[in-house]
Every structure is written in C-alpha cells, then in structure tokens.
Amino acid sequence: MLSSILRICLITVITNTFVFFGNSYISNAEAQQKYRSHPIKEVVLGLGGHDVGVFGHKKERGRDLNIEVRLIPPEIGLWEFIYSPTPHIGVHINGDGNTNQLFLGGNWIFDFGSIFFAGGSLGFAIHDGELDSDTKGRKDLGMQLLFRESVEFGVRFEERHAISIMLDHISNASIDDQNEGLDTVSIRYTSSF
Question: What is the CATH number of the domain that holds 154?
C-alpha cells in the first residue's frame, strides 16, 4: 500500500512540476497572479546517499531520489506563533529496493545575506522498511510512523532557484526497543514559484 501511495505522490509531483515549468515564459504580473492562485511555494528535487550512518551504523544501501513540495504557509495565529514554518510533503525513493518513505512537516528557512540560506524541519515519516527483523542489510526501525528532522544549507541563484545539501534523520526516538534510525544526505535543486 505504501508503494502505491509513493507512486501516486511521485506522479502528482512530476506532473505539477512539468505544468509549472512549462509556463516559465510569463510576465511578472502573470507570475504574481499565478503565485496567488495555487498553494505551492517550491518544488525540490534531490539525489542522495541512503542510510549514510551519521547518527548510527550503516546497513542499507543505494541512492535515494528525493522529491518535496513546499506549500505557502497559512496566515493563522498558531502558525505565526511558531514562526510560520513552510508546510511540506515529500518522498524518498530508494533505488535498491530498501526503505522508502513518505514524509510531511514544517520547514524553517533563514537567509544569510542575499544568496545563502540555512534551515531545518520537523515532522513525521511513514516508511515501508523493516520493523523488527533479522534480515541482513535492513534496518530495524521499530514503528511504521517515525519522527523526522532535517538540516539544510544552500545557495540561491537567479531569484527562483537554489542548490543545497540536506541531512535528514528518521527514528522513533526510542519509543520502541527497535530504533536503528535512518539518515539520508542529498544534494537538492529547488525551484520557487
């Protein structure tokens, strides 16, 4: 079931990306109107190392395709009270058939000068990996729903584009006895709308 959800998310993100990129030759006034007419703030595409072992030992192999959609933050009191994180939803798809994940949460991005930025996120991930297994080369993640956090550093160019490096970590924070966690490092391209 999770792989079906991941496929649907991937198809939706790719379709929307082509629709939005296909209309790149529009005036500033049209761009402002388009920005207000849909909730998408940014689309992020990345490729990275799976289970790099930053906060634990490495077991799983392969490269991950990372796709993330960031939404325009809502203008409501509680959201503004927590400094208006950018809501996001995304996927990590492992190229070697190991753990895939669907994640969501909030991003906080801080600019340093006109081109550099750093940020982080907090949220949750649902995965299709092992929960408690003796399978060689697979992580024991303990629970299907995990906590997810990330840090990201990057550089912006031509106003709407950015390149960054991101480290994310999923685990159950030792709620379950099995809690090997999983770390991913990705190089990512961001396009803002």
Answer: 2.40.160.20
Mean pLDDT rounded to a whole number for the chain: 84
Strand, helix or coil at 39?
coil
Instruction: Render pLDDT for 72-87 as a digit per residue (tens, 0 to 9).
Output: 998 888 888 898 999 9
The tokens for 34 are 């388009």
Could you give the angle at the alpha carbon of 175 between the alpha carbons of 134 and 50, nearest 5°? 55
Other Cβ atoms less than 10 A from the Cβ of 7: the count is: 12
As a whole number of Å, the end-to-end CA separation of the chain is: 32
Name residue 157's beta-bridge partners. 161
pLDDT for the residue 76: 84
Domain count for the chain: 1
Domain that holds residue 15: 2-192
Residues in the chain: 193
Q: Could you tell me the pTM of the whole model?
A: 0.79
CA gap 51, 64 in Å, rounded: 9
3-state secondary structure of 3: helix
| Confidence class for position 33, pLDDT limits 50, 70, 90 | low
Burial class (CB in 10 A: 0-12, 13-18, 19+), 121: buried
Asked whether 104 and 127 are in contact (CB, 8 A), the reply is no
The Cα 64–Cα 55 span in angstroms is 18
Q: Output the CA–CA distances (angstroms, integers) from residue 39 to 11, 17, 28, 74, in the order listed.
A: 18, 13, 18, 9
